[in-house]
Amino acid sequence: MTARLASRLALLGQRTPRAFLASHWHKQALLVRAALPGFAGLFTRDELVALAGRDDVESRLVVRDGARYTLAHGPLRKAEFRALPARDWTLLVQGINLHSDAADALLRRFAFLPYARLDDLMVSYAAPGGGVGPHFDSYDVFLLQGFGRRRWRYGMQDDLTLKPGLPVKILRRFTPQHDAVLAPGDMLYLPPAYAHDGVAIDACTTYSIGFRAASHTELAQAFLDYLRDRVDLPGRYADPDAKPAREPARIGAAMQRRVAQALAAVRWDRATVERFLGTMLSEPKPSVFFAPPARPLARAAFAAAARRRGLVLDRRTQWLYDDACVYVNGEAHAWPAGDRAALAALANARALSPRRAASLSPAQVALVHEGYRHGYAHLA
Ligand code: SIN
Ligand code: CO
């Protein structure tokens, strides 16, 4: 067995992704000892505190005092941390994959699920006794232990009622069936709506690999926004057969019929839904800004440099595709002419070797060059 295959199997407790998805995904929790052997986290406490001080990083601080919780949203100043007690608090830093290549690489270890489902990597630092309390999440999550130990109690329960009046979601009743202490490199998978509570034994960090799953209402709202931006119907309301109004306040049946007819011209088909999905899923998070190169190479020089050095996508870039289009950070582009394999490899592996970059067609180079000029892709 190759080392790569061995580490892929270790991640899911000696299961292939296919076996894990069939037996556990959305179905039951899985505790994996030494999922990432030797892993002790990517960030120190001070690095997390520094990230929490930035206004382009989403962070939260949860402090527990008995059954009371207080919540503060970032940016958080260093002085706020100096004022904290020695125990019972936790700092959570969301979307850390957008700020660190190592964190992005860790998130993409889970690319046995499509990028369109991977949401972000959240890192929490907890002082001993710290945690966010017993709760449930609406999404699947892998909880990977960094340095230190954490006790997780978890289980499925029907009653998901929350305690009222608290700034964080806390279950009114918590009846866990499982109890485990996670050491560095251990990992716990929880399906959506599993009750769980992680309490730090030592000062510790936990890496949450989170997934995105829009509610049907969110999908419909986003789809209607998409349609609204593209709707373009000919004509304007007209009533050449108008009669004197006896009840001028009444909205007449003829008007209702005409408007219903006009609106029936709003149409969409499967292709509309596909374009909508690609643009929506590839839309970067609102906090994301790209840094275009200061002196971008012109297309020919860029193509020559890509053939020498290869290409890499910016870690913040969302680059997806379907049969009809390539979706780059919220924009749909019909597949440029040429063999699709190399461009698909760039999207999947998020990098392209010099040899494969040399096989991009001129139209594909044009698309990648456009991305490079925006800071979406870089020369390796
Ligand atoms: C944490 O890292 O403390 C919270 C993770 C979770 O329970 O979802
Ligand atoms: Co949770």
Task: Describe, in plain words, how this protein is organized in 3D.
By secondary structure, this protein is α+β, with helices and mostly antiparallel strands. The chain has two domains: 3-211, Jelly Rolls, CATH 2.60.120; 214-228 and 266-380, Malonyl-Coenzyme A Acyl Carrier Protein, domain 2. The protein is 29% helix and 22% strand. It has helices at 3-11, 17-23, 45-52, 78-82, 101-107, 216-230, 253-263, 270-281, 299-309, 341-349, 354-357, 362-374, and strands at 30-32, 59-65, 68-73, 89-93, 118-126, 135-136, 141-145, 150-155, 178-182, 187-190, 195-200, 204-211, 311-313, 319-321, 325-328, 331-334, 351-352, 377-379. An eight-stranded antiparallel beta sheet has the order 1-10-7-12-5-4-2-3, with helices on one face. Strands 6-11-8-9 form a four-stranded antiparallel beta sheet, with no helix packed on it. A three-stranded antiparallel beta sheet has the order 17-13-18. The mean pLDDT is 97.
